[in-house]
Every structure is written in C-alpha cells, then in structure tokens.
C-alpha cells in the first residue's frame, strides 16, 4: 500500500503498541530483577544463619522464616531416606539429621579421612555393610550411600539397644571406642564422652533431627509406595572389623 493512502492514525497505533510493549517488558524485567534480588538476600541470610548455627546453636535460626530455615536445612533424596529408614526401623528425621550433620546434604562431600558422600561412609565401613546387607552399587552414589548409612545406623541401633547417643557416638568415633567407654564403671554417655568432636556430633545430630521433624515431618513420614530389597542382618557373633 502506498504510504500516502494509509490512515493517518496507523503510525500512532503502531507507536502506541510498541510503547505499551516496552513498558510491559520493562515491568517484566524489573519483576525478575526484584525476585533475583530477593532470592539473593534470602540466600545470604541463610548462609549467615548457617554460620551462626554452626558456631553457636540451633536456637538462633529456629525463629527465622520457614523459607530461610529450609535453605539452611535442605532436604533431598527424601524418598530414599523414608524407605531406608523404614527398612531399618529408624525415624526418617533421625536419618536426615545425621545426613545434615555429616555433609549438609552435599552428595560430593569428602573428608580428609576419605569418608565420602551424604552419610560420610568410609570405604571399609561401606564394604562391611555391603557384605552384611547385600546392598550393591557404588557407595559414593547418593542413594546407595544413604542405604548403606541407614543400614549401619540400624545395625548400631540393635547393637546398642536403641540408645541414640551410643549409636551416634559409634557412627562418629567407631564401635571399639564406644565399647571401651561404656565398659568403664559409671560412664554416662550424656556427659562423659572424652572427645569434644564426638560430643558435639551427638548433640548436633539430635538437634538436627528435631529441626527436620519440625520442617519436613509430613514429607518424611509419607509412605513412598515402593520398596528396596533390604536385608538387615545383625550377627552377635561377628562385629564390625572382625575377620
């Protein structure tokens, strides 16, 4: 069409549409930018609170908004946690608390002692559990790591007759040390653990269990609707490390 034959307001309408689109685009960009800034602030706050929790105590973060608390205390692989806990007679929040204390839910976490994964399995512990349980797979793979760690906790649960402090102390320090401690007359697991690292580990794991039960109780209790073929074998005649 010849430009001379166009309606005079055609250019104005086109300009108006472009102007409206530009305004809408600007609002959209502003909204995304504000959302990114808000997420950034929450992440920084979460990181700061995580540092406070690590240095001092969990009560400092318990009053924070739920979004922040769930950033500080993340939950992943919950289906595997639920199933592994159920198969080994454990509370899912307890297992989640151990994972948090061990690795902060980082699947690639590795210690200077070569403990690896979410539940910080040592190679020799993983081998022991795999021999006893029949669980196969690479112990460094997250779901296998959880299954192995939960089986070992179940083994310690039976060995120490449900005493969670003894279980956790043995998970952190080893059964041999714990057996030596409890053989001493008058030993009180709540106050007589000789290693500060193990004392802190026990308390932090129990506190984290409470947090995970509060934040994710319903998710952790829900029946996953599928099963993993576990065998939880506890043999009094053969203890970890025996030949």
UniProtKB/TrEMBL annotation:
InterPro entries tied to this protein: Lysozyme-like_dom_sf, Transglyc_AS, Transglycosylase_SLT_dom_1
Short name of any one Pfam family annotated for the protein: SLT
PROSITE patterns, A to Z: TRANSGLYCOSYLASE (PS00922)
GO cellular component: membrane
Domain of life: Bacteria
Domain Transglycosylase SLT: 80-187
Molecular function terms from GO: peptidoglycan lytic transglycosylase activity
GO term, biological process aspect, one: peptidoglycan metabolic process
PANTHER family linked to this entry: MEMBRANE-BOUND LYTIC MUREIN TRANSGLYCOSYLASE C, SOLUBLE LYTIC MUREIN TRANSGLYCOSYLASE-RELATED
Similarity section: Belongs to the transglycosylase Slt family.
Protein name: Transglycosylase SLT domain-containing protein
